[in-house]
Amino acid sequence: MNTHAHATRFSSRALLPLLSLLLATAGLLHTRTAQAEEPAASTDQAGQTGDMTRWGLGIGVSSDTRPYRDFDRKPEFMPLLAFENRWVRVAGPGVELKLLRHDAVALGMTLSYARDGYRPDDSPVLAGMARRSPSAWLGLRASLRSPVGQLTAEWSGDAASHSKGRKLKLGLDHRFAQGEFGLTPRVSATWLDAAFVQYYFGVEAGEARADRAAYTPGSAVNVDAGLRLDWRLDAQQTLFADLGVTRLGRSIRSSPLVDRSTVPGARLGWLYRF
């Protein structure tokens, strides 16, 4: 099945050396941090970690609506891991290697896991479709602290070459603190290239049937808005809740596999920092 002939290909051969370099460098820097004898620096006023090493463990539950028709939504429980030092940051299913930080500007290399995709038995409308696999994404992330909030831009490509797709995400968030509570509204827009949209939302000619026409979409832009609430129970424990909604791009909304234009999501969690 050729789902990518119409799109510009993203070479996995170019990504694999970068992926190996990221993981090797992260391991080396982690080892250097553990062996360091210098006292750790305190966190600065912007919430950035200098030479301090911080890590935490917790548990979370998510309930994300999938865009596919008749898709059974089930809450998912997952362990949470947080780790950060001056070189590496781990949060959820992603790791960032910090390449540059100067005043309000930061640049990092990112590796993350996205639970996109489906199995044919996930929904009656997907019966007879080939499985679409989730993937790892490798990219670069730039951020800028400004008076209106944190501006971010992240470009990434499919490191596992399932979709051979690419993404570009632009976002803005700002945390408002009041005592032990924090409130962080956010908004973002994510461009998804045609290879990504075709793989996850297209229908190949061999997959078409009477109630599922062949479909070859183009690129799409998803728009997301959300709100995160965090409550610091004490010096080490934090509870958080995150609510969001995503407006799907036109070529995704028009897919015969999709029956909605917006996708809500909710996450709850508890984190203990050591």
Automatic annotation (TrEMBL):
Entry superkingdom: Bacteria
Pfam family, one: MipA
Signal peptide feature range: 1-36
Keyword hit for Signal: yes
Compartment(s) where it occurs, according to its Swiss-Prot or TrEMBL record: Cell outer membrane
Keywords for the protein's UniProt record, in alphabetical order: Cell outer membrane, Membrane, Signal
InterPro entries: MipA
Ranges annotated as biased composition (Polar residues): 42-51
Predominant subcellular localization, coarse grouping: membrane
Stretch list, region Disordered: 34-58
Annotated family: Belongs to the MipA/OmpV family.
Protein name, per record: MipA/OmpV family protein
The organism of origin for this protein: Roseateles subflavus
